Amino acid sequence: MQTIEIPPRAWPQALDAFTAAHEGWLISIDVLASDLGAQHEVCDRPLLGIVAEPRVGNGTITISVAGPGGADQTTHTVHAPTRVRVERTDQGADIAMQIESAEETTIVRFRTPAMPETVDGMVKP
């Protein structure tokens, strides 16, 4: 396995590309916080998007998933993120994304690892 760290200045573009490659994939979201322990927030819901808001102040990263039956959506926001990493198999299939802040670590896991789609012969991050 390999872990790819995304530098903060690249978060908006990298997360846009990540969303384009994985929109609709089933994900689960777990949150690890020192005051709450491990919390399971979302289980096997379609990914709608992961968006990094500019680092004005401390910035945010928001993860959106479709609600039951696709009618609503659920969001999880990470305030003042400090690190974003993507875990991949040795073959390049994305397994998970980890977003860290001072207060919590958010883990977005794919139900099934799979190779991201390609555009013009280039693998999307």
What is the structure about, briefly put?
The chain has 125 residues and is mostly beta strands. It is globular, with a radius of gyration of 14 Å. The chain contains 1 helix and 10 strands, in the order E-H-E-E-E-E-E-E-E-E-E.
Spatial sequence of strands, sheet with the most strands = 1-6-7-8-2-3-4-5
The separation of the N and C termini measures: 16 Å
Strand content: over 45%
Number of strands: 10
CATH architectural type: Distorted Sandwich
Radius of gyration: 14 Å
The averaged pLDDT comes out at 85
Unreliable stretches, pLDDT < 50, 5 or more residues?
118-125
Description:
10% of the residues lie in helices and 60% in strands. The model is unreliable at 118-125 (pLDDT under 50). The strands form two sheets. Strands 1-6-7-8-2-3-4-5 form an eight-stranded antiparallel β-sheet. A two-stranded antiparallel ribbon has the order 9-10. The chain is mostly beta strands and 125 residues long. It has one helix and ten strands. It has one domain (2-114): Protein Yojf, Chain: A (Distorted Sandwich), CATH 2.70.180.
